Amino acid sequence: MPGEKSELVIDIPVELREVKSVHSIGGLVFEGDLPAALFHLQLLTTDIANWKAASEVIVVFHTNAGHVTLGDEAYNASRNIATGNPYKKLVADLIDIGVKVELCGATAKVNGWGNADLLPRIKINLDAMARTIQLVQQGFVKITE
Predict the structure, then answer these.
(1) For residue 94, how many other CB atoms are within 10 A of its CB?
(2) What is the pLDDT of residue 3?
């Protein structure tokens, strides 16, 4: 029957003691109006909390997703709108629970964005590719969205 929910049984449960992941986000794909990458980060951080796992989760926004890291004024200028950054609370919530959020320096440079254009607590790295390589060599698992 449409709309009726069926039982869900998890066949392969997962519980990790440690999570080291770097999330490379170069473009936004949406689930409804919510960027899937932000939803997935919320899902992962909830799992980490439930597992009581040690974690280092880093998200690197670059290319066509760099605007997610912008403060309202820079966001409006970049996106040619006047509504402000609709993702700022989602990003702040992730940072509040320990996710480190970074912007690709090459993306910032090509768009003319400086540190003052960013949301609070966003760091700029040299570039997304070099940073991702660095983290993978340090044992982080790369997730591409």
Answers:
(1) 20
(2) 72
How many whole angstroms separate alpha carbon 20 and alpha carbon 6? 34
Residue 5 has a pLDDT of 87
- Backbone phi and psi for residue 118, each to the nearest 5 degrees, phi listed first: -90, 160
Q: Is the pTM of this model over 0.85?
A: yes
E strands, 16-129, where?
18-25, 30-31, 34-35, 54-61, 100-104, 123-125
Strand, coil or helix: what is 9? coil
97's CB contacts (< 8 A; 6+ apart) are: 45, 49
Which letter, b or e, does each residue of 126-135 get, where b requires 16 or more Cβ atoms within 10 Å of its Cβ? Answer: ebbeebbeeb
Distance CA 141, CA 145 (A): 13
